[in-house]
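Pair request: fold both.
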Amino acid sequence: MKMAICAGFLVLLLISPAVFAKDITVGGNNGWTESFDYSSWTSSQTFNVGDNLVFNYGPTHSVYEVSRADYDNCNTGNPRSTHSPSPTTIPLSAAGSRYFICPTSNHCSQGMKLAVNVVAAGTPAPGGSPPSGSRPTPSSPNTPPAPPGTSAPPPPSGGAASIFGGMSNLIVGSLAALFVLMG
């Protein structure tokens, strides 16, 4: 009996990061559309490893994931990935910056672009988007380095330690209860 209780606590400890993952609908009720301020929207969001971005959009739109440079210039010629039709769900599987645009002519320049900063689960974030004027950490080796004379922020912390760091009270409490039960 004690062994079954101990096994149950162990399973809870291992799956608890997944419990906190959530689906985040891009743009909230507005969805993925032109003339919406995604920068303001992301500033009130936190994007964690394990969450999913859900893009809801009409038939004249789609979603391209692009590099920071292509995001800045609304360049659709070299997407990292393309997605359609709606809805599109994109898993946020690693910490770092991610960039999305609509490839339909002039939509990106009309504001249909999204930059998110994904943090390790349990890591507090000041906002969901990279601060303006800063250069986020590249999310792939194909992203060009920062120009000379500029500095990039340190890479986000990652790994199991940072994922479980925000849940230390839960883990310590669960382990204490386990030792009491084993008695």
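--- second member of the pair ---
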Amino acid sequence: MIDIQKHINVSIDTIYQSYLSLYEKDLGFHVLLKYYGEFSVNLIRSFADGVEEIMIKLGDKRHVIKRMFSILVEGLQNIHLHGGLDDNGQQTAFLIVTHNNLGYKVLFGNIVEPEDRSSVKTYLGNINNHSDEELKQLYLSILKDGYLSQKGGAGLGIVTMRIKSSEDLQYRIYDLPSNKAFLVMEVELNKQ
């Protein structure tokens, strides 16, 4: 992941532009979709459908397209349900979908409220420490228990993204000037 000014008081725009530059120029990925701004529920289906159409044109296998669709929908719903608000009361976030010959990298970025920072970091770390079989059991356990958070989520989105990716979720949390934080999560999807 990228190190921006040691994660201290950077703007969301700086974070977004740095990741775009890293993937386009430094790592040689092709950007399929990029969005930076206020998120709404209407954007979720539009982005997922657009990426699906691009992947079909690129000749990707159906199972890879289905996994990507699932990752996108879960990641965007996660932003919609759990993303914090900026100083203007807007849910500012970003999405970057890139690819190369080996596969895809999907980057989700959203604001994290100060009181959620520690739990987000712990939760993502715990998800990465589970084996594939443990993740499947966790998924089934969450489904069985049917617990919903105050924001309406059951915690399945991150678990689903990790299962569909088959790779650890890479993430970094940056400090924003407003005492809030900004989470950037990278999900890798191989073309195999």
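Observation on the second member. The chain has one domain: 5-190.
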